[in-house]
Amino acid sequence: MADEDHHHEALTGKQLGTVHFPVSCTPDAQKAFEKGVALLHSFWYEESEKTFLDIEKQDPKCAMAYWGEAMSLWHQLWNHPDSATIERASAELKNADKAKAKTDRERDYIQALQAFYSNSNKADNEARARAYSAAMEKVYQKYPDDHEAAAFYALSLLGAEPDNDTTFRNRKQAGAILEKLFEAEPDHPGIAHYLIHTYDKPQLAQLGLPAARRYAQIAPAAPHALHMPSHIFARLGLWQDDINSNLASIAATRKATEMHMGGEGHQFHAMDFLVYAYLQSGREADALEVIEEVKAMPPMKDMYGMGYDVRAVSLANFEVSYALELHRWADAASVSLVPGNDPEVNAKMYWSRAIGNARIGHLADARKDQAEIESIRAELLHKKKKPEADFADEQRQEVLAWIEYAEGRKDEAIKLLRPLADKETDGISETGGMPIHEMLADMLLEAKRPQEALAEYQTDLKLNPNRFNGLYGAAQAAEMAGQASQATEYYAVLVKTCQGSSSVRPELARAKQAVVAQK
Hints:
Layout: H1 13-16, H2 27-41, H3 45-58, H4 63-72, H5 83-99, H6 104-117, H7 125-142, H8 147-159, H9 169-184, H10 189-198, H11 209-218, H12 223-227, H13 229-235, H14 239-258, H15 267-280, H16 284-295, H17 310-325, H18 329-333, H19 343-359, H20 363-382, H21 386-406, H22 410-423, H23 436-446, H24 450-463, H25 468-480, H26 484-497, H27 506-517
C-alpha cells in the first residue's frame, strides 16, 4: 500500500514539463520540489500536495515545501477555500516562517502567499486574491529573471480579474508576460497552461491556439494538461480537436486513478466538454454513450470541499443539454431533479423543464417551474450568493419569455429576451446552458422575422463558432429572407462540421440536400 500511495514519484519531467525553481533545500528535496511545482502548474493539486508533504518529511527545514503545500490548497481559478482550508494553509505558512527561509527570494514568495491567507475573516476572497496579486507583482519586479515569479504573477492576475470585465485588462497584462516566457521556455507547463486560461474568451481564443497545440505535449501525464487545450478548441468550434483532447484527458485520469493517484473527479469536467462537442458535431449516439456510462458509475466523493457530487452535477448538465440541443422539448420538460444537488443545479433543471413545458404548450406546468426558480433565487439571496441569484433571475426571465411567446404575446416575449441577449458577451463550451442570442434568434425565426433572426444567429456564431443549431438556424433564416447563397454557405459549414458522423437529425439531412442541390 505504501508503494501505491507514492506512484507520483515515478512521474518525470518528460511527463510533467520542465520547471527550474532553485530553492535552499537539500539536493533531493530540490528535485522533488521542482516536480511539485510542475504538478502545481498543471492544477494537479492532489499530487502536488503529496509531493510537498513528502519534502517536509525529507527536509523539515525546506521552508518552500510549506509554501508549496499552502499553494496546493488554493485553487485560484475555480473555487474559494473554506475556513478550515484557510486555517490549515495559514498553519503551513507559519511552519514556513519557523523553518527560516535562507534567501530573500524565498521569504518574498512566502510573504506574498500570506497576503492571501492572512486576515481571512476581514476580507472576501476577491479582496484577498487582489492582495496576493499585488504582492506577487512586487516579487515579479524584484526578480526580473525569475520565470516562476513571472508565471505565478500572471496566474494571480487571472485569479484577481474583476467579474464581467469586458476590457480584459488583467488578461491582456497576463498575456503580455506569458507570451515572452513562452518563447523562452516552450516546455514549461505553467506558461502554456496559463496562456490558455488567459485567452479563454471568444474574443481572444485565436491567440491561444499555439499554447493549446503545445500544452498536451509538454505534460502528457497530467489529465488537466490534456483537457485544457479543449477550452480553446471549443471556443473556435474545432470539435474533433476538442473531442480528442477530452478523450485523452479522461483516459489519463483513469490511468492515474488505477495507480492510486488523486484527481478522479476531474474526468467529469472533461466529459462535460466531450458531450457538448459530440452534440455540436452530429455525434449524438456518442454523447448518449457517455451519459449512460456516467449513469452507471458510483457517486463521486466531494472534491476540495466544494460540497457536491461532481458526477451528479455532470449528469444533470448532460440531461439538460441532450434534450435542449436536440429540441426534444418533452424530454426537457421531464428532466428529473437529483437529490442533494446545489440550489443552482436545481434551478437549471427547473429552467429546462419550464422551457420544455412552454414549448409543448403545458403552460401551467411551466409556470410552476418558473415559481420554483424564483424560490431558489430567494434562497440564494438569503445565503448572500448574489451572482448565483442574478443568474437564476436570468433563467426566470428566459422562461417567462417562452411562456409569453406560447401565449401569443410574441412582441412582449422578444422584448424580454433582447436585453438579456445584449448583455451576453461570452460563449459556452460545455453542457448545461444555451446561448441567449441563439434563443432569441429561434424566437424571431418562429415569429417570421427572418432578417432579425439572421442577425442574432450571426452574433451568436461569433461567440460560439460552429454550433450545430446556430449554423442551421442561420441557414434557415437566410433562406427565409431570400438570401439563398448565404443559406447554402451555412448549410455547407454545418455539413462539414458533422463530417463523418452518423447523425440522423433531420436538420443535417436538410443541410445535405441543400448543399447537393447547389452543385
